[in-house]
Known about the structure:
alpha+beta
Amino acid sequence: MSIGIPGEIAQSLHPYLVTRAADAVVAFLRTDLVNYVAGCRSLEENRIMRGLAALLVAGGILFAVYHYYFQKMPTTDQGTAPTQAISLVSVREDLLLIAHAESGYIGQNGHCVSLDELISSGAFAMSHPAPDGYAYSIACSGTSDFSVTARHAPAAAGSPIRYPTLAIDQSMDVHEVN
């Protein structure tokens, strides 16, 4: 910017300003002040926009990682949803507890009994209801052979969720029954 009389500079920049010298000095100073303030505000807005853009990109990356994690989450049984894992682990644990109680009852009394008889005799205490709608039953064959089964009602037609039927026998091996 060239050095000159403030009135002349103001008139060259703003031809519609009043030509009095005092007004020209005020207009000249005001124009510089407005340009400075406007420049500072745009830099501040740039920083804010950059921060918002960085936040948006970070949110997108976090969403992608979250989505990928749940798509690749392992399941306990083929064809079941990842959210069923907790219920199926609990069912397996209950089957083991029931089978151990039945095996202990057979060792003391010499014969196999149903689940209701096992509970009423005090050999087994069911401290909580069966998880996720499963029901347990004991099938006896002979005096020492038994099978404990956990069944669930079939899933609704067209549902992607599958409820496996699990069983355990005197070998204490939990397996899926087809």
